[in-house]
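Researcher: Quick one. two chains, 737 residues in total.
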Amino acid sequence: MDAATSFYETPASTRFKGIWAWLLTTDHKRIGLMYLFGILFWFLVAVCLGGLIRLELMSPGADILSPELYNSAFTLHGVIMIFLFIIPGLPAAFGNFILPMQLGTDDVFFPKLNLLSWYLYMAGGLIAITALFSDGFADTGWTFYVPFSVSTQTNVSTSVFAAFILGFSSMLTGLNFITTIHRMRSPKMGWMQIPLFSWSLYATSWVQVLATPVVSITLVLVIVERFLNIGLFDPAKGGDPILYQHLFWMYSHPAVYIMILPGMGVISEIIPVFSRKSIFGYKAIVVSSMAIAVAGSLVWAHHMYTSGMSDTAVFVFSLLTFVVAIPSAIKVFSWVSTLYKGAIQMTPPLFLSLCFVYLFSVGGLTGLVLGAAGPDIHLHDTHFVVAHFHFTMFGGTAFAFFAALHYWWPKMFGRMYGFKKAYAASFLITGGFIFHYVPMFILGIQGMPRRYYDYLPQYAQGNFLAGFGALFMIAGILLMVYNLAITFRWERNAPANPWGGVTLEWQTPSPPPLHNFEADPDVPDYPYDFTGVTDPPG
Amino acid sequence: MGSSRNDETGKKLGMWLFLYTEIILFGGLFVLYAVYLTLHPQAFIDGGKQLSRTFGLINTIILLISSFAVAASITAVQKKQKKRALGALAATLGCGLIFLVNKYFEWGHKIHAGIYPNSERLLDGPPGENLFFGLYYVITGLHGLHIIIGMTVLAVAMGAVAQDRIRPNRLALLENAGLYWHLVDLIWIFIFPLFYLII
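Model:
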């Protein structure tokens, strides 16, 4: 076996052939790709659902969805996007593929557990589908708030169980990555030589391990309540429904950092490479990642200002929410400072990263509007909130996901895509995005609530504009997927290091061989030293 | 390049992280307990008096013995005393089984007395009592499930000892199974005073 033969030609266990070489593989690269295709599939499904929701809202009154169907549609959109796309998106797909290579090693620490996580992920998705075809998917929203989630007739138990399984999968991935980073890094690599994407995965993994069990037990309790009617959250039987919200957000707020931290890691990789300049404030970014992981776990009740908490609690959680904005801002300043006086080479990954920085900043700043207790009373549960979290989650995480796709595509598949279509697609997505979500900020301030299939006539114009933007956005996403997919028709043409990157994954051939490195990789003293790189990228 | 195959420390690190998630899992339930105890202290005390301390104490002792037996089995493997190791593991599994049988009788007794989730007696009584017994069933039920999982893992480890796949220098599977069992025991150490000894 030639050491340079790509992993596509060498199954991880030589016993298996064909489809089994994929389904029973322990190779982190194959598992990463299996995740990638699962995640892209679910992403497109949820995009279609989101499109349906927006089409329904383009004009007042019930047009294409009945009220019940509308409730299920936004629940399904939320559950799929959160649990099947954003949470696993970057860590499970790109983390699996890239992390071991960035650490200069050949696999994750627990390869079999890694495969199990993938099966749990797929099982979770299938169970969610089952719920759809049995008694109708849950109509509770992805938050599964009691008492409605306990009393509604739709199939909440199955949907909740799917979320439980997916949580387990995410937790095992986190556990695997922490152990990998501690025990499998190249012996030559010290903590302050770890690339920033790997650092962000480290912080993410800790949040996954720390926070996920809380939502697991909360979801178990919803199922228990539905079957046994104990009344742990039912005021008529002595329970307290607010406690459910506390338990739910104790996970689900840290979970938004599970979603955004790896995205920030991707951007921290891309910007220095295309500025040909060392990242500004490497240590500050590392520390801010860990600070976000810690502080982000202490702000959950800012989702509950209007639920009935004491003023003291509201004040404390509001203060902590402002504190967590600091490390995020540090990163934004670091990225911008890296670009400053850099030898900038525009490429699709950099273009998407710049869009990320802009959209994420808007999302972050509007988050402060909501984090302040006063304005939140007015804006709670309006379209302002919808616009805010789509700016952070879509404009943030999903744009980082797209940027990662364009950055690592030549490494993963050994094929380079056409830049023109990639730019056109990115431009359509970003332009559509702004048309789509900016009207929602205004609608929210005017008082349009979220999660309603109908609205008052004065909101018609904004909703029409938003629907219009959605069309551009979906067209852009389809163009992007098409542009990447057609590369499969070509011969492998990508060089090992098309961008002039200096992290270790660029020392491997494209696509990498089974054991990643042909020879023991050189670990640079500092992961972002571009002094030896002279070629322009692309 | 590091390799995971012979890295016993790494395997234990992974296990400790997993144990951490289990603690948080039960932690969520203990949070519920703490809040409802503060809201209904008297009902919780009255509820605690209805549970059999003898049963609880016996089960505590059984689990402590079983934890000792697991630890003994690891030492036995290290000293290459395979038969003793197998015996100690069998004792652990036996203790787990006795614990479950006790639990079965305890639950059966309560259910017979009309105390079970959503029963008329609990619905007509004070709300605090309903919460106390609701939490009792959820927490001890989840703990019982963990006992079953722990016994399964220990049975697998026992098979591995019998086939000599666990040796003094390759202990990770047995040690991790033991760690899991100790955790299940530890959680019971918290459950016991919270439900049985509360005055």
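Chain B has a mean pLDDT of 93.
Researcher: Thanks, that's what I needed.
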